[in-house]
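ARCHIVE CARD
Drawer: 12
Card no.: 0347
Subject: one protein chain, sequence and derived structure
Cross-reference: see card 0346
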Amino acid sequence: FETPRFHAITDCGAGGFSSAVGEMGEHLGATVHLEKAPLKYEGLTPTEIWISEAQERMVLSVPPAMLDDLKGICAEEHVELAVLGTFGTPGRELVLRYANLEVGRMPMALLHEGIPEPTRHAHWTRPTPTRTSRESPPLDEALRTLIADPRIASKHWIIRQYDHEVQGNLVVKPLVGHGGPGNASVLQPVATSTRGFAVGCGLATGLGDPRAGGDPYVMALAAIDECVRNLVSVGVDPERIAILDNFCWPSCRKPENLGALVRASVGCYDGAKAYRTPFVSGKDSLNNQFTTEDGRTIEIPPTLLITGLGILDDVRRAVTPDAKRGGNRLILVGDTQDALAGSTWWSHWGGEGLPTVDLDVMPRTAREVARLIASGIVRSCTDVSDGGALTAIAEMCIGGDLGAEVDLDAIHDDATIGAFGESPGRYILEVEPQHAHQVVGHRIGWVRDDRVLRFGAMACDIADLRARWRATLDW
């Protein structure tokens, strides 16, 4: 709009109207007429209306002269609008009314400044790994198992429950090629413009697992790194990425849980600065535990999801991870560490060594991969994350309905680490043979036409891998 129709806006999150209006009116006060709020159910009390956390609601501060304009826009877009009250009261008070009856009054100063702040203690001690290694299967059997692991398996069941084709502006979809997994979704919001944006995520819960000797700081860095890599892999400029955090944590009344949260928060700070990806929003849920009838306390593992949004100047140049043509070279960009702890392999068969995130090297790697994609020589690209490099190549083959020849020795001298290690900061690029010399990285194989993934003396049929990948969550 050339002339703004509102001066401030916030969403109704925790606490509903109470937090939204209470925060927006901190310096002015507010009068709220609760009977004017649209209700999903009849019979709600004023208290229930005030604190309800019904979803998809926003509170706006609208100048009176702009109210009719905003009503017209909402009517045109079929969006419900209700005038709840006004900002500004004598003495900066929050006044609640229901059907001409005053049901609440509180000074904003008391609401924002009068409540004593709790003092809590936080500590974090580096854990000693406790999970021991178990006898592991041959690598081909391991791949068949890992491709079906719920963390890796196809999420088509949830993707297709919801309409991700709204207005038909999705250029790169959650599933690509022959139904293979995508790295990030690319949208073209204005049909007459080639500019667009991508949305991607990063999650590295295993690197915070105490049984792996995990560190929430490394977990946070790895989540930011994976989010950036997912976006870069579709063609986003890493200098134009903004991120959001979503902390899901057990009760922070326990010092060790709060210590892990502090450690992860420091990782967010350091990671955002190193990758130059500002946090523009976020959310948290910090009491995810319950007590059973027999007195046991069950806690979720500390979990951090990083979501990112990045800009593409030309969505027509977006890249997808599905393999494109037999004979094209596969190049691994980024180095593989001597680490299996915290990986999907580790969760099945154990392993040692927690990977680290190099905040000097890995952002530079992201910029170099982005440069290669912008040059037009990259036919497909994927980040290496859950399941390691061999799993990533299997996913490329599933999407492209092709096969591949992989030299695990070119990835790492330990074949298990080369196949299934989840070191951060790595990408796999598919390029045509004549362009391979332009990419600095490890030559790890090539794409085949025969729909078989071969590595050493072992082989896996792509049709079988696809079936296993889809079956786990085919609900």
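Annotation on reverse: The radius of gyration is 26 Å. DSSP finds 13 helices and 23 strands in the chain.
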